[in-house]
Amino acid sequence: MGDFLQYVELNSYLHRLDPRTKFVFFIIMSVLTSFVKSGVALLFLFVVFLAIWLSGRIGKYMLVLLNKVKVLLLFIFLLWLVLGAFTVNAGPTIYRAAFSIFGNPYVFSLDWFDFYKGAVYSLRIFLMISAFYTVILTTNFSQIILGLQSWKVPYAVAFGVGLVFQIIPMIVQEFATIMEAQKSRGLEVDKCSALAKMKNYVIVSLPLLFRVLSKGHSISLAMHYYKLNFKVKRTSYKMIKATYSDAFFASVTAIATVVTIILQVNYYIQV
Fold first, then answer.
1. 103-136 in b/e burial notation, b at 16+ Cβ within 10 A?
2. Of 136, 165, 238, 271, which residue has the fewest beta carbons closer than 10 angstroms?
3. Which residues cross the membrane (predicted)?
């Protein structure tokens, strides 16, 4: 479970899908979650994701992911509460007070709509991240490259995209290692307030930067020592081929996309 952000070897329909199908799913969901701002539409999309995770047997890994990004989601939620505190919105109000600073009038207004905005943006970010990790958990490095090459993508570009899908989990793993080291030195990151957590996360950002640079240097040296040549034509013993499962998954993705857009149009509230 410690390597939850890396490829997990399982015998599930998600793992058996054509990597191109999952890559298209990732692109569509990334675009969709970038403009959908309706709470109803996002909740529907979350249910679709949940069904995919449970049927693909990766639900427990997504729970671990949620636990890891909960501080980020809480920060986004609180940020929108702060930004909305000085904006008067229509609808039920929790607390509202007028005051002045140096003769300038201000209104502090905490509305239920502010909570709605915070929840919407937090859910959007989580779905964006989840779409990426759904592909990572179910598709290994070679499958990503093979799928892109089948689209006539140059090997150098396909290798670079596949490497990105591998490096990000490595960065997150390095971050977890640094956090564990800081905990052993007395830095509290769990049993403290949300603001203290964000401050402590900033503290570990500098050593994380140096670890990431070191990892990048190691990868570059490995590519140099093994004389990686992108001009050499490569073949593969394994062939990828779309099946009826890919057609079904693509149909579900298309239907979910259409329904989400309809819900976005019908239930959108200006945020």
1. eeeeeebbbebbebbbbbbbbbbbbebbbbbbbb
2. 238
3. 23-52, 72-98, 118-141, 153-172, 208-226, 247-269
The model's pTM: 0.74
The DSSP secondary-structure symbol of 242 reads -
Q: Which is nearest to 46 in space by CA: 114, 116, 120?
A: 120
Tell me the pLDDT tens digit for each residue of 232-266: 776 666 677 888 999 999 999 999 999 999 999 99
187: phi then psi, degrees, rounded to nearest 5? -80, 115
One-letter amino acid of 43: L
Q: What SS3 class is residue 99?
A: strand
Instruction: Find residue 95's DSSP bridge partners.
Output: 110
Terminal-to-terminal C-alpha distance of the chain: 37
Is the Cα dihedral 264, 265, 266, 271 positive or negative?
Answer: positive
- Reference 8, options 70, 80, 59, 71; nearest CA is 59
Domain residue spans of the chain: 13-77+115-267
Q: How many other C-beta atoms are found inside a 10 Å radius of the C-beta of residue 18? A: 22
Q: Which of 52, 213, 238, 258 is nearest to 145 (CA)?
A: 238
Q: How far apart are CA 252 and CA 64, in angstroms?
A: 25
Give residue for tokens 């779905």: 127
What is the rounded CA–CA span in Å between residue 226 and residue 223?
A: 5
